[in-house]
Task: structure prediction
Amino acid sequence: MDAPDAGEEAMSEAKRIKSILGGSAGNLVEWYDWYAYAAFTAYLAPHYFPKGDPVATQLNAWAIFAVGFFMRPIGGWLMGVYGDRHGRKAGLTLSVTLMCLGSLMIAITPGYETIGAWATISLVVARLIQGLSLGGEYGASATYLSEMAGKQRRGFFSSFQYVTLISGQLIALCVLILLQSVMAKEDLSDWGWRIPFLVGAMLAVIVFWLRRKLPETESFAKREAGQQSGMFALIKHHPREAMVVVLLTAGGTLAFYAYSIYLLTFLSNTSGFSKEVSTQINAAALFVFMCLQPLAGALSDRIGRKPLMIGFGVLGVIFTWPIFTTLETVSTPVGAFLLMTAALVIVTGYTSINAVVKAELFPAHIRTLGVALPYALANAIFGGTAPAMALKFKEWGWERGFYLYVTAMIAISLVTYLTMRDTQKHSKILED
Result:
């Protein structure tokens, strides 16, 4: 058989990059829809609960944020199996459909004063649907990007999963900044907070059609015949790999949510900045964080995945306490930005390569489920509960207990990083 000429190879590479960009764009919209809730929590919370203590109202809203995470393991299980059996593209298309529905419900549901407890119930249901969607989205997108990326640049291209994740969060913050600057505070608090959810639902419809045109991965097409994906098969044949995913995720996901999502609340409640200034600090630090992901991913292609994860673990254990305690008394926005950026630089050692590390642990026939379900379990237990746990420590009068909690979980993940094999050298993604 004749070797493909340079034109055919160039077309293949162009198709690969186009597919990665297409998958990443859909991931961006999914995460925008998810993080819009976090960005606008302070505005939407009073509409879904009876009037009372503002701190209790915020705590209830963040508790619902956590509830959405507990649907992610179910989504990871159901949609992971679906993606392994029907294709990565099919899983991606289904996940964005569910996300659209959840965002639309939040955008149009009347408030507590109009329909009473049904408003709270509707918000919970919407977040459960979004959690189901995101549970499947992570596994499908992490698997799709890792399989579509070539062997030599797998770390670099798979890092775009977190680039788009952060982009979604950043866009949600930018929408908040825009609305804060162009709308009266009363209008934003009354009805303007619904706009980002309506926009998210509309974007999800566009992504649905985009994802329908994506090509399927070679790994899925060449998966081993006769092998089935399922929870029993995962537990029976890949228990060690599944536990590795849970343990390596625990500290990384908690650190990410502590350093990014919760810091938006922390800067207002503890550091004393206004909501507007806190949002701007958060957005600026996240932009730097986003730009670092491909650089760290490319570095992992040269030196391996393990050194980056160990670097995160060591630095996270050493610096989480000093960063948070310094943020308590920081007096300038620049100082807060530098401290938050330092924290996000540290967690980059996990975020930039976590998708590819998990994908490289599993064979193709069970890869989506293997990536999605253990990750979603760890994310639900440690990531989604991070803001609520932090507020609980604050309510108990021992806010610094949360810093110790984050440090301890990073230390547990560090042990996993030190003892696991480097997946770059032992990858189960066989295609070049």
